[in-house]
Design brief:
Helices cover about 30% and strands about 30% of the residues. The chain is α+β, with helices and mostly antiparallel strands and about 230 residues long.
Length: about 230
């Protein structure tokens, strides 16, 4: 291939389009540390270096760099399906992986977590979040008084921060709004998820030592939606 013409950059871009169509949300690309031309091509396609590693002996055993390229998430590929009892292990694993840091941060004793989880997790209140047909997370909701209570929402770690949570929250809000109902939840004070809830129009209604309790009225506006906009924007 002729060097310096951008063919490699375009070729990788085309591969990424295929990967996205296939339902992937990110890809890893590896390159030798001295192959600066490849690094430039990968970075030009949004790649960021995640690690330096030793290739397995079967692949040459030399040192290599791993880049991650995040692909735009397709809202149309996000769906919810009812949970089945056999989804318990997946749900427990995702919650463990994503919430362990909070348990560690507070120095909580996590003995008995498995039993507690099994008693709190109710398949008939739970839906599995899928992306392109693959299970990527779950949420649990139940009716309380005049609201839908979101008992939990958890996405598997590789899928964080790509807009999937926002889309799923919007589905929950829209479902509740159709019945004229608010959505309520509790969030651990140090959990950055609070920012997401605030952006979607949730307001803090109470707190205890560890958690804020939040509520989004059926007619609430997402933050910023009611702010004056400059003419022409
Ligand atoms: C909370 C969660 C469902 C949001 O879904 P998402 O697809 O990551 O969120 P989006 O990309 O749509 O929106 C980004 C927002 O999500 C939140 N978020 C992103 N990564 C997060 C993480 N690892 N932990 C908690 N919240 C996170 C932040 O509020 C972020 O806003 P910011 O960019 O201003 O920081 C998801 O990050 C998650 O499963 N986190 C771990 C489990 C958890 O904390 N669940 C909430 C319990 S109340």
């Amino acid at each position: 291939m002729e060097a310096g013409r951008g063919y490699a950059k375009r070729a990788l871009a085309l591969m990424l389009i295929e990967a996205r169509r296939a339902g992937l949300t990110f890809v890893y690309v590896t390159a030798r540390p001295d192959n600066v031309a490849s690094h430039a091509v990968i970075r030009a396609n949004g790649g960021r270096l995640v690690e330096r590693f030793q290739e397995p002996a079967a692949y040459g055993g030399s040192e290599s760099l791993r880049f991650r390229i995040d692909l735009k998430v397709e809202a149309a590929l996000i769906a919810l399906r009812p949970a089945r009892p056999e989804d318990l292990a997946f749900c427990r694993r995702v919650k463990d992986d994503t919430m362990r840091w909070i348990i560690t941060e507070f120095g909580w004793d996590d003995r008995g977590q498995a039993e507690r989880f099994a008693s709190q997790w109710q398949p008939d209140e739970t839906r599995i979040i899928t992306y392109a047909g693959n299970d990527v997370g779950w949420l649990q909701t139940r009716p309380v008084d005049d609201a839908v209570f979101l008992a939990g929402i958890y996405l598997d770690t590789p899928f964080h921060g790509r807009g999937i949570g926002t889309q799923v929250m919007q589905i929950v809000i829209d479902e509740a709004r159709r019945d004229g109902e608010a959505v309520t939840l509790g969030v651990v004070k140090i959990n950055p998820a609070r920012r997401l809830y605030e952006r979607l129009g949730f307001r803090t209604t109470g707190e205890d030592e560890y958690k804020f309790y939040m509520r989004r009225e059926a007619d609430a506006m997402p933050r910023g939606a009611d702010e004056p906009r400059a003419l022409g924007s």
